[in-house]
UniProtKB/TrEMBL annotation:
The lineage of its organism: Eukaryota, Metazoa, Ecdysozoa, Arthropoda, Hexapoda. It comes from the Eukaryota. This is RNA transcription, translation and transport factor protein. PANTHER family: CLE. InterPro entries: RTRAF.
């Protein structure tokens, strides 16, 4: 996704390694110089000093001036937001250009598919921009309300939100009363023998999730077997040559 955004903005090296500190800082300067232009040229000196120990302070000030959401904690998240912001400005500055390009493409598509029936989508999700800062901010807000853990990719967070809603907030789940008793003793018994406490906790949680997934798979298998048995017993085939009923 980062590469696509950089290509759309005309970056000379869309494969830039954003994990590299120097490359990351150069990219921020390039975005400010070429597309965002929030500062006057003389006010960009702090960002241009990419090897200075004071660069982080200049970057913090820059994010504040752009109104970058404070809930974005990692540099990758902040970069994705800044890229989306730059694309938004690029589109706004060249609105007539992109409108004409869009119109031309629509006319070409209409000519090539003039014989095909027109189908108008009634799905509101088809009109959503899943990469826009507003959509990403909405996902983050919903994740906070549902206590979904943080992840740099907001689309992965959206998938986790979907899982939480599916498992806990559907009509069937809401009808089930909250189970009473002690919670599962996740920290009792044999662990993964990890030296790091955080890794040990994560490994135990992953093991429980794996057990849950296996149980769900087994449930589906059992339901399939029962359905097949019902089909065989309720609609048996008769072979009079063999003198028996069944397959």
């Amino acid at each position: 996704m980062l590469r696509n955004k950089l290509v759309s903005l005309g970056h000379p090296n869309p494969e830039v390694n954003t994990q590299d500190m120097k490359s990351f800082r150069n990219l921020i300067v390039w975005l400010e110089d070429q597309h965002i232009r929030n500062y006057k040229i003389e006010d960009r000196a702090g960002l241009r000093k990419i090897t200075s120990p004071e660069w982080s302070k200049a970057f913090e000030k820059y994010k504040e001036d752009l109104n970058c959401p404070k809930e974005l904690k990692t540099e990758l998240e902040q970069l994705k937001w800044i890229l989306s912001y730059a694309i938004k400005l690029e589109y706004s500055d060249n609105l007539d250009k992109y409108r004409s390009m869009t119109s031309e493409k629509i006319r070409e598509a209409e000519k090539s598919q003039s014989s095909a029936p027109s189908v108008k989508s009634v799905n509101p999700f088809d009109n959503l921009d899943f990469t826009s800062p507003q959509f990403e901010a909405g996902v983050r807000t919903l994740a906070l309300k549902l206590n979904v853990p943080h992840h740099p990719d907001h689309l992965i967070v959206l998938g986790a939100i979907s899982r939480v809603i599916k498992d806990n907030l559907n009509k069937e789940a809401l009808k089930i009363s909250i189970p009473e008793g002690k919670p599962f003793p996740i920290f009792d018994g044999q662990g993964m023998n990890q030296n790091d406490a955080d890794i040990e906790t994560a490994s135990r949680i992953l093991r429980l999730l794996q057990v849950q997934s296996l149980r769900e798979i087994q449930t589906v298998i059992n339901e399939t077997i029962v359905e097949c048995q019902d089909l065989i017993t309720t609609e048996p085939k008769t072979d009079t040559r063999l003198g028996k009923v069944g397959f």
